Structure formats: structure tokens, C-alpha cells
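Data deposition worksheet. Section B asks for the primary sequence of the deposited chain exactly as it was used as input, without tags or linkers unless they were present during the calculation. Section C holds the resulting structure in C-alpha cell form. Section D is free text for depositor observations; keep each observation to a single sentence. Incomplete worksheets are returned to the depositor.
Section A, Depositor: J.P.
Section B:
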Amino acid sequence: MRKIDSLLSEYGESHQNPTNKLIHWICVPLIFFSLMGLIASIPAGMLRSVLGEGSMYANWAAVLLAMALIYYVSLSIPLTVGMLLFALLCLFLINRLVLLNIAPLWVVSLAIFVAAWIGQFYGHKVEGKKPSFFKDVQFLMIGPAWLMHFIYKKLGIPY
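Section C:
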């Protein structure tokens, strides 16, 4: 069995309850988005001096994304493509959020992050099982890929 199949299967063991699954479909993408927003909020003066002041995507979230994609490539190239597309959408939405100037990006991101984690823990309470990342921290990266693999299955795309 491939490593990705093993990880997805193990992750799925603690995500059987339909309510918990639904919560994960909402909260995992929100956590991913908010985490990118929080990291993008870290001042990136050094990055911008290298990449150019006009680059909206010269932020620490883009750097962390590159490292995450290396991990995903080690598991599945097709899933990496899906994760890249989702992450680029998140970066785009983060930049739109900054342009709207509703509140500082870190404040909006922190609020989403906290609310989504409350949802996640409620889902696991309903499930009656601890979150997988309590066993192995790499499951924090597997959660988004687990959702992506369902999209791939629905579209008939091998992962």
C-alpha cells in the first residue's frame, strides 16, 4: 500500500460520523485559509526586498506553502496539484481581504482559526474519537489532502 493511501485510511478512521465529516468539510479549509492568513501577516520586508516591493504574494505564507508542497509531492503528485490550486485560491482571497481593509488580516484570520478549531473539536466530540494529529502531527497536513482525495474520487481523477 502506498504511503498516501495508508495515511488517508488512518486519518479516515477517526472521521466516520457524518456530522464530523460535514464539520471537517467546512473547518479544514477554513483552518488552512486562516493559517495562511496568519502567516501572511508576518512582516515580509526581507522577502519583498528580494522579490520586489510590488509583489503581493511575497509573504511568509507563500514560503511555507512551498515547503508544504514538497511534503505533498513526496506523497502524491496529483494531490499536490490540487493542494497547490487550493492554496493559490487562498492566497488570492487573502490578498482580496487585505484590499477590502475590513480589519487587519491577522485579526480576521485569528477569528476564523479559533472558530474553525472549535468546530473541529466539537466534531470530534460527536465522533467520540480524538483528532488524528494527537497521535501524529503530520495528520495536520493530511486533513486537507483527505478532503482533496474525495474530490478527486468524485471527478474520477487518480491520486
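Section D:
Residues 77-100 form the longest helix (24 residues).
DSSP finds seven helices and no strands in the chain.
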